[in-house]
């Protein structure tokens, strides 16, 4: 029996998610970007050109950078990323409504459309930082969702966090009809919130507000959904997206219950739950 032919992708985002890592880099991380961040942003985080090498500005230690689809991560790499999330974000998760749920987090990390940017020590090959992203639709909006971004202590404040976040912006600017970079962050993670705000992220319209029950009790959310708009300098065709659901996560190693989500001389925020998935 002849093998079934794969259905043709129906949107730019679906096409992007079907590409190999090599194709994804060539099409969305290497091209010259034709878009800019929204001019009203309080801070500018420009697109960053893709690179496979990076050196710590103070210690000179060399690191390698690679892009890997979730399904192509080795079990060792996946566990190293999981352990880094736990190291940087466990307390934020545990203090949230949904608590730390290792099985659920691992499931989320295996989402087939997720891509990981791994930063490894040039000598030992151990993972010292990573971020994960996904082109997707969030409540009908085409976005690049930063699921996680986590850095070991020795890399915080080094500029690496901004480089990794800049990769998200690069993909967003090179992939119409993407309109923004989005992430989730625990409200308890003041350091991460400060990092995102300094880089021009603000509260998104879909971020949850207080919930009032019939009893009069008011429950405040423990996370915020943040975004940074992208405006293209040249007209690009927008295909109509078909909405699809996805799990919620936050960036920089910040995670939120089902959708939760750092660079100057100050220590760089380590993405833990907002860009650390969306849950």
From TrEMBL:
GO terms for cellular component: cytoplasm; nucleus. GO terms for molecular function: histone H2A acetyltransferase activity; histone H4 acetyltransferase activity; protein N-terminal-serine acetyltransferase activity. Its main location: cytoplasm. InterPro entries: Acyl_CoA_acyltransferase, GNAT_dom, NAA40. The keyword NADP does not apply. Coiled coil: none annotated. Residues 15-24, 256-269 have a biased composition (Basic and acidic residues). Residues 29-43 have a biased composition (Polar residues). Belongs to the acetyltransferase family. NAA40 subfamily. PANTHER family: N-ALPHA-ACETYLTRANSFERASE 40 (PTHR20531:SF1). This is N-alpha-acetyltransferase 40.
């Amino acid at each position: 029996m002849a093998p079934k032919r794969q259905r043709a992708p129906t949107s730019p985002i679906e096409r992007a998610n079907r590409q190999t890592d090599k194709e994804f880099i060539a099409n969305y991380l290497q091209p010259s970007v034709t878009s800019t961040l929204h001019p009203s942003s309080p801070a500018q985080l420009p697109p960053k050109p893709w690179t496979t090498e990076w050196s710590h500005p103070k210690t000179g230690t060399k690191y390698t950078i690679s892009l890997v689809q979730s399904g192509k991560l080795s079990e060792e790499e996946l566990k190293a990323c999981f352990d880094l999330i736990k190291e940087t974000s466990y307390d934020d998760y545990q203090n949230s409504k949904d608590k730390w749920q290792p099985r659920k987090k691992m499931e989320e990390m295996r989402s087939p459309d997720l891509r990981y940017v791994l930063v490894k020590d040039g000598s030992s090959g151990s993972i010292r930082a990573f971020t994960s992203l996904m082109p997707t639709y969030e409540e009908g909006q085409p976005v690049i969702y930063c699921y996680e971004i986590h850095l070991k202590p020795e890399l915080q404040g080094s500029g690496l966090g901004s480089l990794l976040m800049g990769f998200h912006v690069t993909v967003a600017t090179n992939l119409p009809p993407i309109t923004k970079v989005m992430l989730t962050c625990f409200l308890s993670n003041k350091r991460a919130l400060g990092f995102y705000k300094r880089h021009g992220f603000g509260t998104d319209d879909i971020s949850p507000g207080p919930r009032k029950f019939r009893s009069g009790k008011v429950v405040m959310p423990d996370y915020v959904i943040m975004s940074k708009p992208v405006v293209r300098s040249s007209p690009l065709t927008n295909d109509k997206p078909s909405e699809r659901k996805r799990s919620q996560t936050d960036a920089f190693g910040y995670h939120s219950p089902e959708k939760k989500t750092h660079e100057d001389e100050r220590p760089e925020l380590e993405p833990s739950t907002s860009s650390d998935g969306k849950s």
